[in-house]
Structure formats: C-alpha cells, structure tokens
Write the structure tokens for this entry.
Amino acid sequence: MLSTSFYAQENPLENNLQNTENQLTFEKIEEDLNNFTKKKNRSVGVVLYNKREYEKVSNGYYQAYIYLNKINSDRAVKLKERVLYELAYINEQLDKFERAYYFLEEATDLTDSLRQASIKQNIFEAEAKYDEVKQAQKLEVEKSLRQRTQFLFYGSAMAFLAFIILGYIFYRNYRLIQRNKIEQIENEMQTRIINATIDAKEKERKSIAEILHNSVSALLSSANLHLQATKSQLKENTPKEISKAQLIVNAASVKIRDLSHELISSILLKFGLAFAVHDICQKYSNSEITLRSDDKNISRYNQNFEIKIYNIIEELINNILKHSNATNATIMLVHRDDNMLSVRLSDDGKGFNINAAKNKDGLGLSHIKARVKVMEGVFNIMSSKGNGTNIFILVPIPKT
C-alpha cells in the first residue's frame, strides 16, 4: 500500500505546505469540491481537463488531504472522504493507476469506518429507545388488535360491496358487448343484403341491356332489311302497310337503343369510366346547372368495378340534380400511386344537415356507404346548410 510520503515524493508542494495551510478552510475545500463535481457532471462524455490542469487540481486536493489529516472532527473526516475519492478519480484520468488505487483504497476504508461509526451510533440510539418503545408497543398491540378487528369488519363489508358493484359493472359491460356484437352482425347482414340486391340489379340490368342490344336490336334490324328488300321487289306496287311497318320497326329500334343505354351506359362498356362520367356530365348539364368532370391517370379497369363506381357517381349526380339547387358541380377521378381510386364530387348548392340526412336517408346515402364498404373503401361527406356539399370516396382498384 502507498503511504502519504510516497505521494509527497513527487509533489514538491508538500515542502511548502505550511504556507498554503493557512489559506485552507473547510468552506474553501467544500466549495472547490462542489465546483469540481458540478463541472464533472456537466462534462459527461467530454474531456474535462488537460493533463496540466489535472495536475494542478490534484496538487490542490492533496494539500487539502494533508491539511484535513491534522484535524480530528466529523466535518474534517467527511471532507477528507470526498477529497480522497476525487484524488482517486483525477489520478485515474492522469493514468497514475497506482496512486489512484491508493487513494481509492483510503477512501473506501474511510467510508467503511464512517459507516461502522454510524451503525454503532444507530445501535446506541436504538438501545436507548428500546425500553420506551417496548412499553409503547404493549399499548400499541392492544390498540392494533382493536383496529384490526374493526378493519376486518369494515374491510369485509367494503369487499363485499365492491364485489357486488364489480359484478354489476361486468354484467352491464357484457350486455353492452353482446348488444354491440348483435348490432354489428345486423349491420353487416344489412350491408350484405343491400349489396347483394344492388349487385343482382346491376347484373340484371347488364343482362337485359345485352339482350336488347345484341338480340332484339339485331332482330329489328333484320326485319327492317327484309321490309326494305320487299319494297325494292314490289317497287310502285308496294303497299302502304310495309312503309308503315318499316317506320314502326325503326321507332322500336330507337327506343330499344335508348332503353339499353339507360340500363347500362354503352360508352362505359366501350370506352371506360372516365369517358362515361364525362358523357353523363354533358348529358345532364343545362341552363340551370353545369356539370364538369376531370380525371388523372384513369385507365380501363375490371368491368364490374367500373359499373359499380359509375352507378355510385350517377346516383350522387341524381341527388345533386334533385336536391342541391346548385349551379355548378365537379367530379374528379384520380388513380393514385398506391393503386387507389379517389372520387371527389363537389357542388355550390344549399347543402344539408348530414345527421338529419342519415336518419331520414332520403338521399340513399346508407346504400352508397354500404356499397363502398363492401369494396373496402372510404366514404366521407362534408356539408352544411348554405355551404354546398363535398363527397370523397376512396376505394382500392382490383387487379385485372
């Protein structure tokens, strides 16, 4: 183990220690320790001092250590303990590990002795109070027994009451959960029924339109050709009934074509969603309202998907025409980078109360929402009286 004389061999300041001891006080040492500790704590992960500055701090603390060794008081011993730990830290930073170990050992020994002294003092105080506490314990035991009896009684009553309350809360929550599950199942069933009905109608309309266009229209065209051939053969002797029959066939062909287009848009089937929306805007625009459409990155999609989106847009446009009193309306279609199709409809009409519309559902909003939900999409409405209406639909585009 190192001795203090070993450290002094390389510290010539100890030869002049008598000159510096007069400048040392408990307050000065304590202030230096506190300042060093604060600076050390603020400089975690950063170089605190250079080697020369560490040497200077080390010499100062060593002088304080020699000074404190000569004083026998509790305050001096505690300060010496702190000084020894700082000397161990500083010598470690200076790579003087033998000295660092010496001061650390001195510090830990001193800490142990202080701890032992504190333990002895505590034992002495405990023994002094033992008799007093023992007497008080006897009274406390009697009081504790009474309190324990009361506590058990009231505790049991409170536990029983809490059990009843928790049981009631659990029962209410269970009923609420079951009710929510039932409502959810009912909503899902209603959504499925609505969409099954709509899908069946769309399928039926498509089937009827194809029959009218491909079969009935072709038959009428064939009948018209036969009538025309008969007229050519009979020439001047053609009965008037054949000309009238030809006019009737032509009129029937026009009505069949119009009916087919009403059932399902031929433009939608031939050219796709963007052209069909543009066509419906042109068809419904008039002197009272102007409908505009715009699109971005729209291409051809799965035909059933296009029909569903077109029917939703057509129903929303019908709502605008019937209820909004708008003069301008815009439909925007965007194929987003995340393979989602967004549809925005906005108008400058009178707007409406969304909650009242949900309860009344005169606009078919629940049907539209159900259709979008089945497509795993999002359906949002923003509207208020006097501020027009904005509708946003976002649905994933199915892979073709």
The two ends are 86 Å apart (CA to CA). The chain is about 70% helix and 10% strand. Strands lie at 290-296, 328-335, 340-347, 378-383, 389-396.
